[in-house]
Request: fold
Amino acid sequence: MSQPPESNHQDLSSSANDSFELDGNIEPDSGTGLPPFELEPPPATSDSSAQQVELYLPERDPEQPEQTPQLELEGMAPPVFAITFNDGHQARFQYAANLLESLEAQQIDVHFQCREGYCGSCRAQLLSGEVHYANDPLAWLNEGEILLCCCIPRSDVKIKL
Reply:
């Protein structure tokens, strides 16, 4: 039977000669030659009125064009389509990444949760027109339903929210 290797660890149990105080003062170790450890003082605080109370929104508006032209999707013209709702209201899809982003940018209230096609909360009825999914959504879709968070129009569309 083999013996365990000899340990190089020092015995850390306290002896009668060890003494220290827990008063929060850190005394320099005179034997190491290292400078004493110093804690930085906490940053100065200003009055509570200077605290952040603003909501930070994305730096770009998804319905405003960027400096570079939008890339064409294979077999599709750059999307600039009319969105008509079953109640007669209209919006425009142009530069956004998906229908949900476009509608939000135009202050149209749409229910959503995940923004990834998993939950199905942004489900809408496609009454006319065509949409394109860059990635197929994972949520179950019935015939004639679309997920606004992950599709873009391929033509003018009419939807029911």
Notes: The beta strands are 81-85, 90-93, 123-128, 131-133, 145-147, 151-153, 157-160.
